[in-house]
Design goal:
This protein is of the alpha/beta class. The protein is built from 9 helices and 9 strands. It has one domain: Uracil-DNA glycosylase-like domain (Uracil-DNA Glycosylase, subunit E). A 6-stranded mixed beta sheet has the order 4-6-5-7-9-8, sandwiched between helices. The chain has a 3-stranded mixed beta sheet with strand order 2-1-3.
């Protein structure tokens, strides 16, 4: 087996193990790909195994067109509009959050509410503008009452998140909050233990840190988050 096929097999194995840990019972691919894989768990959740980005580099516009008027999970029933992402398509720094909130659902842009205003300040403190970075979420539709995204919802959006990362090809990824970190790393470790530790996703250095919404609730943790972002600046060759 080639190194590329070995890496693909390992990625699929990590994905299946992560989904099963969350109680997923049935996992399926596109009809033109592999046959269904069923675990022994009895939980009713359904997830989609993402396609790995092995073909030509697609543009963000092409990925958005493929997403279309998405109805791949139940979140489509309560959304006002899809919140795909915003920023530079060639950003060296990419932020991945959890899910759109009420303001994002209304405006169709990620991180525009109170948490978004704090994220903007964090980005500016790193000597970037929002237009210079790329920002998106794990899921593209607002969960009802801002509840946590569920495993099947995360899995349905995951191919598009992976495609966004593959299209932008940032030098550094920053995940905001536990769901973003766990979705990309397939690691159930608490964000309090994940944050501040360099990891890797598809060969890209990844720094997990707290979600801005959490920092609004617990301002004392801003110091830790700023320390994480300073490490990102150093990785990008910028003086903190």
């Amino acid at each position: 087996m080639s190194d590329e096929l070995t890496e693909i097999a390992l990625e699929l194995r990590r994905h299946l193990a992560w989904q099963e840990a969350d109680g997923t019972r049935l996992i399926w691919k596109d009809p033109n790909l592999a046959a269904p894989v069923v675990s022994a768990r009895s939980a009713p959740a359904i997830a989609v195994v993402p396609k790995l980005e092995t073909g030509p580099r697609r543009t963000l516009d092409e990925i958005r067109t493929e997403l279309g008027d998405c109805k791949r999970c139940k979140l489509c029933g309560g959304r006002t509009q899809i919140v795909f992402g915003s920023g530079s398509p060639r950003a060296e720094l990419m932020f991945v959050g959890e899910a759109p909130g009420a303001d994002e659902d209304q405006q169709g842009m990620p991180f525009v509410g109170k948490a978004g205003q704090l994220l903007t300040k964090m980005i500016e403190a790193m000597k970037f503008t929002r237009d210079e970075v790329y920002i998106c979420n794990v899921v593209k539709c607002r969960p009802p009452e801002n509840r946590n995204p569920e495993p099947d919802e995360i899995a349905a959006c995951e191919p598009f998140l992976k495609a966004q990362v593959a299209s932008v090809r940032p030098k550094v990824l920053v995940t905001l909050g536990k769901f973003a970190a766990q979705a990309l790393l397939k690691d159930q470790t608490a964000i309090t233990r994940l944050r501040g530790q360099w990891r890797e996703y598809e060969g890209i250095p990844l720094m997990p840190t707290f979600h801005p919404a959490y920092l609004l609730r617990v301002p004392a943790e801003k110091k830790l988050a700023w320390g994480d972002l300073q490490e990102v600046m150093k990785k990008l060759g910028r003086t903190p």
